[in-house]
Amino acid sequence: MLSTLQPPRSLSLLPLRRFQSSRPIVSAAASSSSTISPPQSQILTTRRSLLSGETTAVEIAKSYLSRIRLTEPQLKCFLHVSENVLKDAEEIDQRIAKGEELGPLAGVLIGVKDNICTEGMPSTAASRILEHYRPPFDATAIKKIKELGGIVVGKTNMDEFGMGSTTEASAFQVTANPWDLTRVPGGSSGGSAAAVAARQCMVSLGSDTGGSVRQPASFCGVVGLKPTYGRVSRFGLMAYASSLDVIGCFGSTVADAGMLLHAISGYDRFDSTSSKQDVPEFQSQFLSVDHFESKPLKGVKVGIIRETLEDGVDSGVKSATQEAASHLEALGCILTEVSLPSFSLGLPAYYVIASSESSSNLSRYDGVRYGNQVMAEELNRLYERSRGEGFGGEVKMRILMGTYALSAGYYDAYYKRAQQVRTLIQKDFKAALEQNDILISPAAPSAAYKIGEKKNDPLAMYAGDIMTVNVNLAGLPAVVLPCGLVEGGPSGLPVGLQMIGAAFDEEKLLRVGHIFEQTLKGSGFVPPLLANVA
Amino acid sequence: MATRALLAVISASPSRCFISSSRIKIQSSVSSLSLNFQQHSRKIHRIARSYSSDTDSSLLQPPDVSRLAETARISLTPAEIEECETKIRRVIDWFGQLQQVDVNSVEPAIRAEMDGGNLREDSPETFENRFALIQFFQYGIVE
């Protein structure tokens, strides 16, 4: 658990020596030219400001709420903004005034994906069937955040029940990408990613079943961190596919995402799949590069997944990934190409497993225990009409696909076979990670696409998950961080580099990611929307 | 290879092995990727036989959306059935590529490897806010 003491001097991220990378990032237009120094941790900056008296939690909260008011009409990141933000901030200020101990997240403003239960606040999973649902309990991750002083700003938009890759499948609104308002932010945690990109909150929580944290992180130019399966309790996360779901973190820096992950990690007796593995002090990895020699990642073995850079990936994404690999090499990494022979099977296997498990998990939404109910004279009709009118099209489709795949006579052909393919994928990753410290790939085959472009073609939509689903099947941790810009939008579109680690080895991932980010020329990915917003 | 899965996704179309229906619409898949997606992969259309101990040697029946909806307790309008049928058949057809994988002697993995022994005692616990749970029975009723 993070202490309440001042962070050790070695963790200071300012000032930093600017690293001159060997080649410029491929971009149509650089990000904001005023951003020369590496991105700073919002969590540590907030803490320093509060403890020094430079500002108050209320002032910080007011500035973020003001930014939300200005940008929400265009972005629509939030389904619900908390009425208690200023009250919670005042409590933090009172504790500071009394000289009381402060948690490491004190005053940190956090967005929460709407499939994570927050007591007394709407939690709808962006579905009509839960339109008026206010949970009587907090998810374990939320409970931990609150205990450490974090302030929940609101509930962010998402694809309904996590089923989607664009946030267009929300029953309530479509979120826009802060880099180009005509494009999607990715999904299903698009609201959480866009909110961090637009600085509507400092960090946010999402969930990742097949890439739903990592892909929107790539599309929105922020850091997205998916932990090892079992690292974070799923209690209070509305289940989509129980063998794949994890709660993940967004931040504008690797350090922020890592510190948030540390705050929510740990064994939970309410989640039988949560791990009893010790949670290391991730913060110790976020050292200033001033403390390293010229090659701070000397000897780190990095495997580039061959199958992720072949046909079917946009040329701009390939170039950005290859430039990122060169940057890692310049930092001292040893790069090799690795092959995962079962890689291409991950996508169909994932969708069989996810839709099958979702058909079971969503059977609880029957209009009886919670959620909207459509009256009927007979019980089965009540179930059918409540679910028929409460669920959106994509959710219904996936439930039906899952029902088919689990039916008698089809179970072996689909679900069991997909699980056998999962074993093959796990073996491939294990072998590759025995030879390498981390693996890298693009986070998505393209940058963000236009709103509506793939809405009516499920297979085209599913194709975008090719880079991410295998990691969920294997249960491994991964981080996505922006590595470059490609053409598109007013100022270019961000693309993300995915780094994949061994199970429960988030420490190594975060160390490599942090150093990569802090030494990347032209880093500090700020969307053009913020140029006109204070 | 890729993105063999990507290429397979883009070129998937309803299998000829399924019972044809005049209601099936062939849709062309439009992708933002830079490939020519007009070539159909015949591999997608071959479905292996006798891969399930519970099936006989005949081909798997295509999904009957109405029956599936009844099983899943979801009401669908006729328009929804028609739309779903086309999309689901394409996706199920695409799932078919898994049949070509040699999984002989491969154990199915139900989840990622994890440390075990996390089961709680089989004894009930009273939730501290029972009233909050019960009140949901009274909300959200739509006529």
How does this model look, in words?
- Chain B: One of its GO terms (cellular component) is mitochondrion.
- Chain B: This is Glutamyl-tRNA(Gln) amidotransferase subunit C, chloroplastic/mitochondrial.
- Chain A: Allows the formation of correctly charged Gln-tRNA(Gln) through the transamidation of misacylated Glu-tRNA(Gln) in chloroplasts and mitochondria. The reaction takes place in the presence of glutamine and ATP through an activated gamma-phospho-Glu-tRNA(Gln).
- Chain A: It is an enzyme of class 6 (ligase).
- The complex is a heterodimer of chains A (534) and B (143).
- By secondary structure, chain A is of the alpha/beta class.
- Chain A has a domain at 42-299 and 442-532: Amidase signature (AS) domain (Amidase signature (AS) enzymes), CATH 3.90.1300.
- Chain A is built from 15 helices and twelve strands.
- Chain A has helices at residues 42-52, 57-75, 85-97, 140-147, 190-197, 214-220, 254-264, 315-330, 346-361, 379-390, 393-405, 412-435, 458-463, 469-474, 506-518, and strands spanning 78-81, 109-113, 151-156, 203-208, 223-226, 246-251, 301-305, 334-338, 373-374, 438-442, 478-486, 493-500.
- In chain A, β7 (301-305), α8 and β8 (334-338) form a beta-alpha-beta unit.
- Chain B has 143 residues and is mostly helical.
- Chain B has four helices and one strand, in the order ααααβ.
- The longest helix of chain B has 18 residues, at 78-95.
- Residues 12-58 of chain B have low confidence and may be disordered.
- The interface between A and B is large, with 101 and 75 residues.
- β9 (373-374) of chain A pairs parallel with β1 (141-142) of chain B.
